[in-house]
From TrEMBL:
Residues 348-422 form the GH3 middle domain. Belongs to the IAA-amido conjugating enzyme family. This is Probable indole-3-acetic acid-amido synthetase GH3.6. Residues 434-560 form the GH3 C-terminal domain. It comes from the Eukaryota. GO terms for cellular component: cytoplasm. It comes from Prunus avium. The keyword Signal does not apply. The keyword Ligase applies. InterPro entries: GH3, GH3_C, GH3_M. Pfam families: GH3, GH3_C, GH3_M. GO terms for molecular function: acid-amino acid ligase activity. Signal peptide: none annotated.
Length: 574
């Protein structure tokens, strides 16, 4: 199928969105209507079932409703008298990209032709949109892609577990010739240490500086880490270019040897050029200084990734910073037709053939959606917010995806949405991700004006063991800011305490009401050591989180994560 044919097919699906939605649900139920999970809710398989009856019969679900069945499949995938979630064979599990828990969820990936067809249309359609904006060039045709295909684990039953982005590279029939456009060799992508892989990606990218057309990573945080590594290790990179082999810190022999081959011997002129770039005072626009032919930088910048957008724009300079699509581990959700837009203007077109979508009305000032009914794709209203509910080809039925979106319009007959935030989880969640990000942004502006302090990362945790419960906010500042703060510790504490009240004022109506009623105690603000959130990411990766999909938590729901950050506290403001 040509790119034009793909885009026409996508457009057609939005023109007949309601029909395609009903066809998608019918296909899912025709295929999987007899699975164990659905058995208590559905009539006999030969009985007709429309969308309204399906929604009345099958309850809304969350991951906990599937956990036992997922664990059974992980322990013994082939020893069940009846299919548990899908009649198709289980190929592997994908890690979820959520970070509110120390260990990621396992999302089953089945050998479903219908699922693969839907994913193909979405992913190839996305690629076609990119190629329309940036037509391929014959010589400058490499991508510096920070992708990490390691971290593949095996369950007790012998099923592989990996990131969704890793599957094309780790499946038994992976065709590596399809990835020849990536500037790094296979051994770097398959390495065993994410930081070493990142360094080698950079080294290979700089060696092929004149061939790089684009720079990519799954999420904005991944590129922030890349540029931070670049700033801290540029002298080592120059040394490696001068000598023609990577740092001895790179212990993976296969990865080292492959990078030596890419370097092709000492590169003295290139090392001199890189050194001159970094001897300048400014890092603004460093992308085009190092890679003069690059045309774009691309990653997801919406949701919790939006906080990194200004810093990425600083590094990118005049190079366009492109947005990503709305693809989850459970299913593809929406496609971004205008990838040049900044995160606050990014819109996604719902894909009517990717899954069956429902929308649960959401109100920022309510903690409980009990009693509310979902609407289908034709029942949403512009301007209103909804939690996304999906029924997928991958064994989830009326499943809380965990995302809040706002409907901003329609593309043909398919809703056009903007991503708002992760959905709150129950009545104990007294603030939401959106309000927290806005409050921290204002808090940072206040601190910047008063103390020139820059917050690099943050998260919150409601401590239910305290009476009354209290919100704890953890902030990490740059090393230089910390030194300044320690020099003037008394003044710093006074300033932080003064701005804590304005931080509290921005945390939303639910928090304010509970504070006024005395149901929640005063805010506890913790300043943690620089690098604390990086160390948290290392813990998460050791516990199975895929390096390429890791996102720092904003709303912490696990005490283990909160205790980890509490162990790094330098200053407490009460």
């Amino acid at each position: 199928m040509t790119d034009d044919e793909l885009l026409i097919k996508l457009d057609d699906s939005t023109r007949n969105a309601t029909r395609h939605q009903l066809d998608t649900l019918r296909s899912i139920l025709d295929q999987n209507g007899t699975v164990l999970y659905l058995q208590p809710y559905l009539p006999p398989h030969d009985a007709p079932l429309d969308a309204a009856t399906f929604r009345l019969s099958v309850p809304l679900s969350s991951y906990d409703d599937y956990a036992d069945l997922v664990n059974q499949m992980a322990d013994s995938p082939r020893h069940h008298h009846q299919p548990l979630l899908s009649v198709d064979a289980l190929l592997c599990f994908f890690y979820s990209s959520g970070t509110s828990s120390p260990r990621p969820k396992l999302i089953p990936y089945f050998d479903s032709k219908l699922s693969k067809a839907a994913s193909y249309i979405a992913h190839q359609g996305s690629a076609a949109i990119l190629k329309r904006l940036f037509p391929p060039r014959p010589t400058v045709n490499k991508i510096l892609w920070f992708i990490y295909a390691d971290n593949v684990r095996t369950t007790r039953g012998g099923v592989k577990v990996m990131a969704a982005s890793t599957y094309p590279l780790q499946s038994g029939n992976a065709n590596w010739s399809q990835f020849s456009f990536i500037v790094s060799p296979r051994e770097v992508i398959l390495g065993s240490n994410a930081e070493h892989q990142m360094y080698c990606h950079l080294l290979c990218g700089i060696r092929s500086f004149d061939l790089v057309d684009g720079i990519r990573a799954p999420y904005a945080i991944g590129l922030i880490k890349v540029f931070c590594l670049l700033e801290s290790k540029w002298e080592q990179l120059c040394h490696d270019l001068e000598h023609g082999f990577p740092s001895l810190e790179i212990s993976d022999v296969a990865m080292r040897n492959s990078v030596v081959e890419v370097l092709g011997g000492p590169q003295l002129d290139l090392a001199k050029r890189v050194r001159s770039v970094f001897e300048e005072n400014s890092r603004g626009g460093i992308v085009s200084k190092l890679w003069p032919n690059v045309r774009y930088v691309r990653c997801v910048t919406t949701g919790s990734m939006e906080q990194y957008y200004p810093k990425l724009k600083h590094y990118a300079g005049e190079i366009p910073l492109l947005g990503g699509d709305y693809f989850a581990s459970e299913c593809c959700v929406g496609i971004n037709l205008d990838i040049m837009q900044p995160p606050e203007k990014t819109r996604f077109i719902l894909l009517p053939t990717a899954a069956y979508f429902e929308f649960l009305p959401f109100d920022m000032n309510e903690t409980d959606a009990a009693g509310k009914e979902t609407v289908d794709i034709s029942g949403v209203e512009v301007g209103k917010m909804y939690e996304v509910i999906v029924t997928t080809y991958r064994g989830f039925y009326r499943y809380h995806l965990g995302d809040i979106v706002r409907v901003v319009g329609f593309y043909n007959l398919s809703p056009q949405v903007e991503y708002v935030m992760k959905a709150p989880k129950g009545p104990n969640e007294i603030i939401n991700e959106k309000d927290l990000m806005s409050a921290i942004h204002k808090f940072q502006l206040d601190l910047g004006n008063a103390m020139e302090m820059e917050i690099t990362e943050f998260a919150s945790f409601v401590d239910m063991e305290l009476s009354p419960k209290q919100l704890k906010v953890f902030v990490e500042v740059e090393e230089g800011c910390l030194s300044l703060m320690q020099e003037k510790i008394e003044e710093s504490v006074v300033v932080l305490r003064r701005f804590c009240s304005s931080l509290e004022d921005g945390l939303g109506g639910i928090y304010r009401v509970q504070r006024d009623r005395g149901e929640s105690g005063p805010l506890l603000l913790y300043v943690v050591k620089p690098g604390s959130f990086d160390r948290l990411s290392h813990v998460a990766i050791r516990n199975g989180a895929p390096p390429s999909q890791y996102k720092p938590p904003k709303i912490i729901r696990n005490r283990e994560i909160a205790r980890f950050l509490e162990g790094s506290v330098l200053v407490t403001i009460i």
